[in-house]
Write a structure and sequence with these properties.
This protein is an alpha+beta fold and about 450 residues long. It is built from 13 helices and 23 strands. The structure holds fe (ii) ion and zinc ion.
């Protein structure tokens, strides 16, 4: 069985939702559930093992010997054995000298200080020895720059793009015909190669459904501990969703919950939301609505550019107050659609529940805000999917991107019945884990 086949999708899925084997750089990794069980017998969790090579993904490559070089006024141009040229500024070479006084290899950290850096530095001598560049500087310092090392740090666009994808995988946006990638709990929990599969799926699609988890609270805490650590909030490390008589959150009622992201009133909102269904409401309702906030925002940008501009620039207050682990009073402000400095979508903040009634807007802007947010909300629902989680299901969501809501259910017949358990983990930890596993298995993704 190919690793990618462990991930399957629901009936509405299209083939593009499966991770094609070509994304594994031609590698096919046969795994079985039996092998999964054996891999869990290791005494030291594999992800705690030290990498054998610094920055493994980026370092692992064919030998890129340098065959020629040309000294210029501000940089050296080199040519690798395959004829590929690349150029390196002297100021960059000096700061990135890899000798033990300039770079602490055990800390994987630069020891060289900016105050020591001469912006106009030029070399006294450059030599090519065994395919590597040796640079003698005027202060007597000598730096050795290996061909492979230089190639990985090339300033050429294609090589910079490889680093960008290692930082963050490209996303596949989806709409109403999407089928959620599914994976079995046993495989998802125990096998590192399968963990890599579903982490990649989560990063690309923003949602993964894990099936067959044990029906006990704290299961997701144990799961998250395999990956990194739980993100605590004022609700603690985790919380249980059961219908309550005097709820401190609408989630504890049976009413409909509109599509939202969790905890937008945090500056550092949780990167991913984990919903573990231990017991589902029997009867109508209780389904989860899901929508790709980035897809809906891209539709909004195309069809209503003024609304997109408004929602991506005007900040709105989000608040939450109450008592959970302690008395809390959270307040922050965010645009609905957060863009990075290149105009790429980074984070969605939507929650009618916790959007503040105090708005730092002019009256005219208030009208525009409501037009824009209702239009966005309509697009979100038009392109949403609905799933009714079953006991043993764990729904993992990219809380920066995928919104979730809940269909109403009759709480009078459900008190003490519908039982969900929730926890969070940040993307820093999940992407870190994905990179560690990629390095170990020598797998590249675009
Ligand atoms: Fe929520
Ligand atoms: Zn040095």
């Amino acid at each position: 069985m190919l690793t990618s086949q462990v991930l399957r999708v629901t009936a509405r899925a299209t083939s593009s939702l499966l991770l094609p084997s070509t994304q594994y750089a031609g590698k096919t990794i046969p795994r079985t559930v039996k092998m999964i069980a054996r891999s869990f017998q290791r005494s030291t969790p594999a992800f705690l093992q030290q990498p054998t090579q610094r920055d493994g993904f980026f370092e692992a490559a064919s030998c890129k010997h340098i065959t020629h070089f040309e000294v210029g006024p501000r940089s050296v141009k080199v040519e690798f054995f395959d004829g590929e040229p690349s150029e390196y500024p002297y100021v960059w070479l000096r700061e990135n000298c890899q000798c033990s006084s300039c770079f602490n290899a055990s800390a994987i950290a630069r020891a060289f200080l900016l105050e020591e850096l001469d912006l106009t530095i030029t070399p006294k001598d450059v030599q090519l020895l065994d395919g590597n560049i040796h640079v003698e500087w005027h202060d007597g310092h000598v730096g050795v720059y290996k061909g492979d090392w230089l190639h990985h740090r090339s300033f050429k666009p294609a090589i910079r793009a490889a680093k960008r994808s290692h930082y963050m995988l490209s996303k596949e946006l989806w709409s109403a015909k999407f089928g959620i990638p599914e994976i079995s709990f046993v495989a998802a929990f125990h096998d590192d190669q399968v963990i890599l599969d579903w982490l990649v799926a989560l990063e690309r699609y923003g949602v993964v459904l894990i099936k067959g988890a044990p029906l006990r609270p704290k299961t997701i805490n144990q799961f998250i501990d395999r990956l990194g650590f739980v993100k605590p909030t004022h609700y603690g490390l985790d919380y249980e969703l059961k219908t309550e008589v005097s709820p401190n959150n609408l989630a504890y009622t049976g009413c409909k919950l509109g599509l939202h992201t969790d905890l937008p009133y945090y500056d550092y909102a949780p990167g991913t939301t984990w919903l573990h269904c231990i017991r589902q409401h029997e009867g109508k309702g209780g389904d989860n609505d899901l929508s790709d906030g980035f897809f809906a925002a891209s539709v909004l940008q195309k069809e209503h550019p003024a609304f997109f501009d408004f929602l991506s620039t005007k900040q709105i207050y989000f608040q939450d107050q109450g008592v959970a682990m302690y008395r809390f009073n959270k307040l922050t402000k965010w645009p609905t659609i957060v863009l990075d400095n290149e105009g790429q979508m980074q984070r969605i903040n939507v929650s009618s529940q916790s959007r503040d009634s105090i708005m730092d807007l002019d009256v005219d802007e208030v009208f525009t805000f409501y037009e824009a947010i209702k239009t966005y909300n309509d697009i979100l629902y038009e392109n949403s999917i609905r799933v009714k989680l079953q006991p043993g299901d764990i729904l993992v969501l990219d809380n920066m991107r995928v919104l979730h809501g809940r269909q109403p259910f009759d709480s009078s017949t459900s008190v003490g019945c519908r039982h969900f358990h929730n926890a969070y983990i940040d993307w820093d930890e999940l992407r870190s884990r994905r990179r560690v596993l990629q390095d170990r298995f020598g797998i590249k993704f675009s």
